[in-house]
Amino acid sequence: MAGKPLHIGVLALQGAFREHRQRLESLGALVREVRLPADLVGLDGLVLPGGESTTMARLLTEYALWQPIRKFHAGGGAVWGTCAGAILLAREVRGAPPQFGGQQASLGLLDAAVQRNAFGRQINSFAAPLPVSGLEEPFPAVFIRAPAFSDVGSQATVLATWEGQAVMLRQGAVLATAFHPELSPDARIHALFLMMVAETKTEMA
Protein backbone atom coordinates (compact mmCIF):
# COMPACT_ATOMS: atom_id res chain seq x y z
CA MET A 1 0.00 0.00 0.00
CA ALA A 2 1.18 3.55 -0.73
CA GLY A 3 2.22 5.86 2.08
CA LYS A 4 2.70 4.90 5.69
CA PRO A 5 1.45 1.44 6.64
CA LEU A 6 -1.85 1.25 8.46
CA HIS A 7 -1.96 -0.13 11.99
CA ILE A 8 -4.69 -2.76 12.22
CA GLY A 9 -5.75 -4.71 15.28
CA VAL A 10 -7.33 -8.16 15.14
CA LEU A 11 -9.37 -9.25 18.15
CA ALA A 12 -7.52 -12.37 19.27
CA LEU A 13 -9.70 -13.83 22.00
CA GLN A 14 -11.13 -16.68 19.91
CA GLY A 15 -11.75 -17.63 16.30
CA ALA A 16 -9.95 -17.12 12.99
CA PHE A 17 -7.75 -14.18 13.99
CA ARG A 18 -4.50 -15.67 12.66
CA GLU A 19 -5.90 -15.95 9.14
CA HIS A 20 -6.92 -12.29 9.20
CA ARG A 21 -3.50 -11.28 10.47
CA GLN A 22 -1.71 -13.16 7.69
CA ARG A 23 -3.92 -11.67 4.98
CA LEU A 24 -3.60 -8.10 6.27
CA GLU A 25 0.17 -8.39 6.65
CA SER A 26 0.41 -9.69 3.07
CA LEU A 27 -1.21 -6.40 2.01
CA GLY A 28 1.33 -4.31 3.89
CA ALA A 29 -0.55 -3.52 7.11
CA LEU A 30 1.11 -3.57 10.52
CA VAL A 31 -1.02 -5.94 12.58
CA ARG A 32 -1.42 -6.24 16.34
CA GLU A 33 -3.39 -8.92 18.17
CA VAL A 34 -5.89 -7.31 20.54
CA ARG A 35 -6.69 -8.96 23.87
CA LEU A 36 -6.84 -6.04 26.29
CA PRO A 37 -8.14 -2.46 26.09
CA ALA A 38 -4.57 -1.10 26.02
CA ASP A 39 -3.97 -3.01 22.76
CA LEU A 40 -6.36 -0.65 20.96
CA VAL A 41 -4.14 2.39 21.47
CA GLY A 42 -2.65 3.73 18.24
CA LEU A 43 -4.68 1.53 15.89
CA ASP A 44 -6.34 2.79 12.71
CA GLY A 45 -8.70 -0.16 12.30
CA LEU A 46 -9.94 -3.25 14.12
CA VAL A 47 -11.10 -6.64 12.83
CA LEU A 48 -13.54 -8.80 14.80
CA PRO A 49 -12.99 -12.30 13.36
CA GLY A 50 -15.26 -15.25 12.85
CA GLY A 51 -15.59 -17.80 15.61
CA GLU A 52 -18.37 -18.45 18.11
CA SER A 53 -20.22 -15.24 18.91
CA THR A 54 -21.51 -16.21 22.37
CA THR A 55 -18.01 -17.22 23.43
CA MET A 56 -16.57 -14.01 22.02
CA ALA A 57 -19.24 -11.96 23.82
CA ARG A 58 -18.37 -13.66 27.12
CA LEU A 59 -14.67 -12.95 26.61
CA LEU A 60 -15.36 -9.31 25.69
CA THR A 61 -17.04 -9.01 29.09
CA GLU A 62 -14.25 -10.89 30.88
CA TYR A 63 -11.55 -8.66 29.38
CA ALA A 64 -13.63 -5.46 29.71
CA LEU A 65 -13.50 -4.68 25.99
CA TRP A 66 -17.08 -3.65 25.16
CA GLN A 67 -16.77 0.03 25.99
CA PRO A 68 -13.16 0.43 24.77
CA ILE A 69 -14.17 -0.91 21.34
CA ARG A 70 -17.15 1.47 21.21
CA LYS A 71 -14.84 4.32 22.25
CA PHE A 72 -12.29 3.28 19.61
CA HIS A 73 -14.94 3.50 16.92
CA ALA A 74 -16.36 6.78 18.25
CA GLY A 75 -12.86 8.23 18.07
CA GLY A 76 -12.56 7.47 14.35
CA GLY A 77 -11.39 3.87 14.30
CA ALA A 78 -12.74 1.69 11.50
CA VAL A 79 -14.18 -1.69 12.50
CA TRP A 80 -14.82 -4.82 10.42
CA GLY A 81 -16.67 -7.88 11.68
CA THR A 82 -16.75 -11.23 9.87
CA CYS A 83 -19.39 -13.86 10.67
CA ALA A 84 -19.35 -14.00 14.51
CA GLY A 85 -17.66 -10.60 14.49
CA ALA A 86 -20.48 -9.23 12.35
CA ILE A 87 -23.01 -10.58 14.86
CA LEU A 88 -21.22 -8.60 17.58
CA LEU A 89 -21.58 -5.38 15.55
CA ALA A 90 -25.37 -5.44 15.08
CA ARG A 91 -27.90 -3.48 17.13
CA GLU A 92 -30.00 -6.63 17.65
CA VAL A 93 -29.07 -10.33 17.67
CA ARG A 94 -31.80 -12.82 16.83
CA GLY A 95 -31.66 -16.56 17.42
CA ALA A 96 -29.44 -16.58 20.51
CA PRO A 97 -29.23 -20.00 22.24
CA PRO A 98 -31.91 -20.83 24.87
CA GLN A 99 -29.34 -20.84 27.67
CA PHE A 100 -28.90 -17.11 27.02
CA GLY A 101 -32.63 -16.52 27.32
CA GLY A 102 -32.78 -15.61 23.64
CA GLN A 103 -30.68 -12.51 24.37
CA GLN A 104 -27.11 -11.79 23.26
CA ALA A 105 -25.04 -8.68 23.89
CA SER A 106 -23.68 -6.70 20.95
CA LEU A 107 -21.74 -3.52 20.27
CA GLY A 108 -24.62 -1.80 18.47
CA LEU A 109 -22.33 -0.12 15.94
CA LEU A 110 -24.32 -1.30 12.91
CA ASP A 111 -27.92 -0.24 12.33
CA ALA A 112 -29.22 -3.68 11.43
CA ALA A 113 -30.57 -6.79 13.08
CA VAL A 114 -28.70 -10.04 12.56
CA GLN A 115 -30.10 -13.56 12.44
CA ARG A 116 -27.69 -16.23 13.67
CA ASN A 117 -27.29 -19.36 11.52
CA ALA A 118 -29.46 -17.88 8.78
CA PHE A 119 -28.24 -20.45 6.24
CA GLY A 120 -28.24 -23.50 8.53
CA ARG A 121 -25.84 -25.22 10.89
CA GLN A 122 -22.22 -26.37 10.39
CA ILE A 123 -23.28 -29.21 8.10
CA ASN A 124 -24.88 -26.67 5.76
CA SER A 125 -21.66 -24.68 5.26
CA PHE A 126 -20.86 -23.82 1.65
CA ALA A 127 -18.73 -21.71 -0.70
CA ALA A 128 -20.22 -19.63 -3.49
CA PRO A 129 -19.25 -16.92 -6.02
CA LEU A 130 -20.75 -13.82 -4.42
CA PRO A 131 -21.35 -10.61 -6.40
CA VAL A 132 -20.12 -7.71 -4.26
CA SER A 133 -20.73 -4.04 -4.97
CA GLY A 134 -17.44 -2.42 -5.98
CA LEU A 135 -15.77 -5.66 -7.11
CA GLU A 136 -15.65 -6.45 -10.81
CA GLU A 137 -15.73 -10.23 -10.38
CA PRO A 138 -17.68 -12.31 -7.81
CA PHE A 139 -15.90 -13.03 -4.55
CA PRO A 140 -15.36 -16.70 -3.55
CA ALA A 141 -17.24 -16.44 -0.26
CA VAL A 142 -17.11 -19.13 2.43
CA PHE A 143 -20.27 -19.40 4.55
CA ILE A 144 -19.93 -21.32 7.84
CA ARG A 145 -22.98 -21.18 10.12
CA ALA A 146 -23.39 -17.77 8.53
CA PRO A 147 -25.71 -15.06 9.82
CA ALA A 148 -27.73 -12.66 7.65
CA PHE A 149 -28.80 -9.05 8.16
CA SER A 150 -32.33 -7.67 8.21
CA ASP A 151 -34.12 -4.46 9.19
CA VAL A 152 -31.19 -2.57 7.73
CA GLY A 153 -31.25 1.10 8.71
CA SER A 154 -31.05 3.96 6.25
CA GLN A 155 -27.42 4.77 7.10
CA ALA A 156 -26.21 1.29 6.21
CA THR A 157 -25.59 0.16 2.63
CA VAL A 158 -26.06 -3.43 1.49
CA LEU A 159 -23.00 -4.47 -0.53
CA ALA A 160 -23.91 -8.11 -1.16
CA THR A 161 -26.90 -10.45 -0.90
CA TRP A 162 -27.23 -14.22 -1.13
CA GLU A 163 -30.55 -15.97 -1.70
CA GLY A 164 -32.32 -12.68 -1.06
CA GLN A 165 -30.64 -12.05 2.29
CA ALA A 166 -28.13 -9.28 3.02
CA VAL A 167 -24.70 -10.71 3.82
CA MET A 168 -22.40 -7.67 3.56
CA LEU A 169 -23.04 -4.17 4.86
CA ARG A 170 -21.18 -0.92 5.27
CA GLN A 171 -22.15 1.94 7.53
CA GLY A 172 -19.58 4.71 7.57
CA ALA A 173 -16.45 3.26 9.19
CA VAL A 174 -18.12 -0.08 9.94
CA LEU A 175 -17.93 -3.07 7.59
CA ALA A 176 -19.74 -6.35 8.22
CA THR A 177 -19.51 -9.61 6.28
CA ALA A 178 -21.62 -12.66 7.17
CA PHE A 179 -19.07 -14.87 5.42
CA HIS A 180 -15.35 -15.56 5.98
CA PRO A 181 -13.08 -13.63 3.56
CA GLU A 182 -10.06 -14.74 5.61
CA LEU A 183 -10.69 -18.36 4.53
CA SER A 184 -10.60 -17.48 0.83
CA PRO A 185 -7.38 -17.05 -1.19
CA ASP A 186 -8.86 -13.81 -2.55
CA ALA A 187 -7.61 -10.70 -0.71
CA ARG A 188 -9.93 -8.14 -2.30
CA ILE A 189 -12.24 -7.62 0.68
CA HIS A 190 -9.28 -7.21 3.03
CA ALA A 191 -7.94 -4.64 0.56
CA LEU A 192 -11.37 -2.97 0.56
CA PHE A 193 -11.27 -2.72 4.34
CA LEU A 194 -7.79 -1.17 4.27
CA MET A 195 -9.03 1.41 1.75
CA MET A 196 -11.93 2.16 4.10
CA VAL A 197 -9.52 2.55 7.02
CA ALA A 198 -7.33 4.93 5.00
CA GLU A 199 -10.36 7.00 3.94
CA THR A 200 -11.61 7.22 7.53
CA LYS A 201 -8.17 8.22 8.78
CA THR A 202 -7.97 11.00 6.17
CA GLU A 203 -11.44 12.27 7.08
CA MET A 204 -10.52 12.41 10.77
CA ALA A 205 -7.21 14.21 10.17
TrEMBL record:
**Xref: PROSITE patterns:** GATASE_TYPE_1, PDXT_SNO_1, PDXT_SNO_2
A matching Pfam family: SNO
Which keywords does this Swiss-Prot/TrEMBL entry list?
Glutamine amidotransferase, Hydrolase, Lyase, Pyridoxal phosphate, Transferase
Give the residues annotated as active site.
C83, H180, E182
Look up the EC number in the record and give it. Answer: 4.3.3.6, 3.5.1.2
Molecular function (GO) terms for this protein are: glutaminase activity; pyridoxal 5'-phosphate synthase (glutamine hydrolysing) activity; transferase activity
Q: Which residues form a coiled coil?
A: none
Task: Provide the GO biological process annotations.
Answer: L-glutamine catabolic process; pyridoxal phosphate biosynthetic process; pyridoxine metabolic process
Q: Which InterPro entries match?
A: Class_I_gatase-like, PdxT/SNO, PdxT/SNO_CS
Q: Is Membrane a UniProt keyword of this protein?
A: no
Q: Which GO terms describe its cellular component?
A: cytosol; glutaminase complex
Reaction(s) catalyzed by this protein?
aldehydo-D-ribose 5-phosphate + D-glyceraldehyde 3-phosphate + L-glutamine = pyridoxal 5'-phosphate + L-glutamate + phosphate + 3 H2O + H(+); L-glutamine + H2O = L-glutamate + NH4(+)
Per the record, the pathway is:
Cofactor biosynthesis; pyridoxal 5'-phosphate biosynthesis
List residues binding L-glutamine. G51, E52, S53, R116, I144, R145
Instruction: Name the job this protein performs.
Output: Catalyzes the hydrolysis of glutamine to glutamate and ammonia as part of the biosynthesis of pyridoxal 5'-phosphate. The resulting ammonia molecule is channeled to the active site of PdxS.
Assigned protein family = Belongs to the glutaminase PdxT/SNO family.
Summary of subunit composition and partner proteins: In the presence of PdxS, forms a dodecamer of heterodimers. Only shows activity in the heterodimer.
Q: What is this protein called?
A: Pyridoxal 5'-phosphate synthase subunit PdxT
Natural source organism: Deinococcus radiopugnans
Name of the gene encoding the protein in the UniProt record:
pdxT
